[in-house]
């Protein structure tokens, strides 16, 4: 009787495993759907991922499935959701995850469970540096590339005395760290930095600390609504009356609309995507706009790119096994409407072009969403951190070629 019980238990375990192996690939979109990072991401990114799933077609013979959740910008909430996704829902890959503190919690759990992380909104360069692993890839900008491209561009235009207003969590501090290194290496000076909590409405006490230092650049190491409010209040306080300019790192199309072209004109941005770059970006953006009502920003576009490449790698590997898929993701070039012959490095960093954009003057704009001029195209191997400089354990271990 005991033997029969063991046999039955084994059969049930085998059946459960077989069902899991036979189930459709399942992707979970996790991001901010109700707060500061919901603009240009949130449910718009969910729709972009749905488009990627549709365009990819059958994966291991079945259409991939999609679920999504709001992490509320809380690491414990994000971690709890993802644990349930892995243990109960059968999720194979998690995509987006803006807020680096949440991303680190997800990354740790994904590594433990051997699941794929496709980070788009998580911008700390530590994701593919000291915290790198086989299962995590980083698809958009990061704090190093933002600092590198933006810092160099502003310095070239004479901005050599910087004061930072940063977000008081991992992303903001990493961005100040990385930009300060670029500034000081090129003869500029960092006059100081203050950090405000996420989703701050009144920046007056922080901005007042910048005034006595007389900067010619105010580095806004925050994002989204925090950046918009920082700019508006800095102008009100007269911080730009002496000719000081802003370096805004993460600003979306809707934010520029909110600020107005008159107030934002001349502002520089470093983005991995702009809807009006070429015929391919315009064609996909038209499809997106038909669903959402306006062109996409880079978070939905990069999330599409990440998921499309992941699903292609699953088919190429012939398996949902995370180790096999991760290897295929690094082996295959990244090709879609956003990128031609991009590369996923051993550390998980995706190398693709970045674009230095400048907000147009009001008289230059030909329509509501015609907001940027492309100032320069920066190749991925110039924009992103050199492989050997990131401190990634995979690189140190020499487990694969760069």
Automatic annotation (TrEMBL):
Signal peptide range equals 1-20
Q: Which GO terms describe its biological process?
A: amino acid transport
Q: Indicate the segments forming the Leucine-binding protein domain, all copies.
A: 24-360
Record carries keyword Transport: yes
What keywords sit in the KW lines?
Amino-acid transport, Signal, Transport
Similarity annotation: Belongs to the leucine-binding protein family.
Name the UniProt record assigns to this protein: Branched-chain amino acid transport system substrate-binding protein
What are the top taxonomic ranks of the organism? Bacteria, Pseudomonadati, Pseudomonadota, Alphaproteobacteria, Hyphomicrobiales
């Amino acid at each position: 009787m005991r033997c029969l019980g063991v046999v039955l238990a084994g059969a049930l375990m085998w059946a459960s495993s077989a069902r899991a192996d036979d189930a459709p690939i399942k992707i979970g979109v996790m991001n901010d759907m109700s707060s500061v990072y919901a603009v240009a991401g949130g449910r718009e990114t969910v729709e972009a991922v749905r488009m990627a799933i549709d365009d990819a077609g059958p994966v291991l013979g079945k259409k991939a499935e999609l679920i999504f959740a709001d992490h509320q910008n809380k690491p414990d909430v994000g971690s709890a959701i993802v644990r349930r996704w892995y243990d109960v829902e059968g999720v194979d890959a998690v995509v987006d995850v803006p807020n680096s503190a949440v991303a680190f919690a997800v990354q740790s759990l994904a590594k433990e469970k051997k699941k794929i992380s496709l980070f788009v909104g998580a911008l700390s360069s530590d994701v593919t540096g000291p915290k790198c692993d086989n299962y995590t890839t980083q698809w958009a900008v990061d704090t190093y590339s933002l600092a590198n491209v933006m810092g160099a561009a502003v310095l070239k235009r004479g901005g050599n005395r910087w004061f930072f207003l940063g977000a008081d969590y991992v992303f903001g501090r990493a961005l100040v760290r990385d930009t300060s290194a670029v500034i000081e290496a090129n003869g500029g000076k960092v006059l100081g930095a203050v950090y405000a909590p996420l989703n701050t409405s009144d920046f007056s006490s922080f901005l007042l600390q910048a005034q006595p230092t007389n900067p010619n650049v105010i580095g806004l190491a925050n994002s989204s609504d925090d950046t918009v409010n920082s700019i508006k209040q800095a102008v009100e306080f007269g911080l730009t009356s002496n000719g000081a300019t802003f370096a805004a790192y993460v600003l979306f199309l809707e934010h520029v609309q909110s600020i107005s072209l008159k107030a934002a004109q001349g502002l520089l941005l470093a983005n991995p995507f702009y809807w009006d770059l070429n015929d391919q970006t315009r064609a996909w953006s038209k499809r997106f706009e038909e669903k959402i009502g306006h062109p996409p920003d880079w978070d939905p576009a990069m999330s599409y790119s990440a998921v499309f490449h992941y699903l292609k790698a699953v088919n190429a590997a012939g398996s949902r096994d995370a180790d096999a898929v991760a290897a295929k993701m690094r082996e295959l070039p990244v090709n879609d409407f956003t990128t031609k012959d991009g590369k996923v490095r051993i550390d998980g960093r995706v190398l693709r072009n970045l674009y230095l954009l400048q907000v147009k003057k009001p008289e230059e704009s030909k329509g509501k969403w015609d907001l940027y001029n492309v100032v320069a195209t920066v190749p991925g191997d110039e924009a992103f951190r050199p492989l050997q400089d990131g401190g990634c354990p995979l690189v140190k271990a020499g487990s694969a070629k760069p």
